[in-house]
Specification:
The protein has 3 domains: 10-112, Phosphorylase Kinase, domain 1 (2-Layer Sandwich), CATH 3.30.200.20; 116-165 and 205-248 and 269-295, Aminoglycoside 3'-phosphotransferase, Chain: A, domain 2, CATH 3.90.1200.10; 176-203 and 296-375, no CATH class. By secondary structure, it is of the alpha+beta class. The protein is globular, with a radius of gyration of 21 Å. It has 11 helices and 9 strands. Helix 4 (167-182) runs parallel beside helix 9 and helix 9 (298-320) packs antiparallel against helix 10 (332-347).
């Protein structure tokens, strides 16, 4: 049940001997040869496992090829976890950061390997949880987000992590701009959704440390108690911002069992299981824990979905322009189109609006079904 890496993708190989020498220099007493394996996923930064005779580590680095420095700042991600550790213990221990890009062609860092279960699209075959266990797992994961949002960022020395107040406006303007820059000819303009977001921005409810990509497959569960969270991973998008925007980001990945087919096809965490809270129940549970009261979550829900569409499009842009040949990105343009449609459906207020979207919806359903069959 322990999360295991697989073989290396050829395009993601690096100078293993250089990394081995670096680790040996940073960690006295390391013995034996170094075996490198790679974890699946890695649509953004890449994650590897380094196995020595007497130790095991995780290496994180950016993809090779053209990339935005701000989106793959390994030093920033390393520093966030290093300074969070004393006040938010559910992060791995940081071992060393390598700023010298000459070593493997880009920056990287080494951290502790947390031995545990990562709940991906489906739980491991050997893990049997009843409905009550699933509910406990669900609330324990949400509780970690609440705990993070209550961290005193000044105490952590992270007051310079982001700009703070005005986060909502910066995010909406920023993600709209990123989409326009990354748009390819085979995706929609998203103009209706972007215009609505810009016209309906609420004031920030608070400023706190936000994760930016808080999902089930970014947490590690204890192997002997698989409803208990022992680690939170992937801090590349962490900043200071509005906690409800962070929850909106998380719910963009929260696929329920009764959701439309295109969403169910793209599910990457086990939120479909009996016992999991619905998206609305998550909002209610979280807001109660944070003391926010009853909140209309429509804006944050649509923001999270649109932001996900932009992230997917930025990845697809690299594939479209042959900056990566990873086949898992081939049909990402279909997902971008569907997310835009889904946002428009959430905005539709009359049955006439919904009927007007039907032809596009049926076309996308057919394309998604066809792409799934081909896989």
């Amino acid at each position: 049940m322990i999360d295991q890496p697989g073989s290396l993708r050829e395009a993601d190989r690096f100078n293993a001997e250089a990394v081995k020498a670096f680790v040996q220099q940073q960690v006295p007493g390391i013995q034996g040869d170094m075996k490198v394996r790679q974890f699946k996923g890695g649509a953004s930064n890449l994650t590897y496992q380094l196995d020595f005779e007497n130790a095991r580590f995780i290496l994180r680095t950016s993809p090779a090829g053209t990339k935005a420095k701000s989106a793959h700042d390994m030093g920033r991600e390393y520093r966030i976890m290093q300074q969070l550790k004393p006040v938010f213990s559910t992060v791995p221990d940081m071992i060393a950061f390598c700023k010298d890009e000459g070593l493997i062609g880009r920056e990287f860092y080494i951290m502790q390997k947390l031995e545990g279960i990562i709940p991906r699209a489906n739980l491991p075959k050997g893990l049997q949880l009843n409905e009550s266990d699933v509910r406990s797992l669900c609330t324990n994961v949400i509780d970690k987000l609440v705990e993070l949002h209550k961290v005193n960022y000044t105490q952590a020395g992270l007051e310079d992590l982001g700009k703070g107040a005005g986060y909502v406006q910066r995010q909406i303007n920023g993600w709209c701009d990123r989409y326009e820059k990354a748009r390819t000819p085979n995706v929609p303009s998203c103009k209706k959704v972007m215009d609505w977001l810009k016209s309906n921005m609420p004031q920030d409810v608070a400023t706190c440390i936000i994760h930016g990509d808080f999902r089930f497959d970014n947490v590690v569960l204890a192997s002997d108690e698989p409803t208990r969270v022992i680690g939170v991973l992937d801090w590349e998008m962490a900043t200071l911002g509005d906690p409800l925007m962070d929850l909106g980001n998380s719910l963009a990945y929260w696929v329920e069992a009764a959701d439309p087919l295109p969403l169910r096809i793209t599910r990457r965490q086990p939120t479909h299981l009996k016992g999991m809270l619905t998206r609305q129940e998550v909002v209610n549970y979280y807001c109660d824990k944070m003391g926010f009261g009853k909140i209309d979550f429509t804006f944050y829900r649509i923001y999270g979905l649109f932001r996900l569409a932009v992230i997917v499009q930025q990845i697809y842009y690299r594939y479209y322009h042959q900056q990566t040949d990873n086949p898992q990105f081939k049909n990402f343009n279909l997902l971008v189109s569907y997310l835009d449609l889904y946002c428009e459906e959430l905005l539709a207020k009359s049955w006439l609006d919904k009927w007007a979207l039907l032809p596009r919806k049926m076309s996308l359903y057919f394309q998604f079904a066809l792409s799934s069959i081909r896989k």
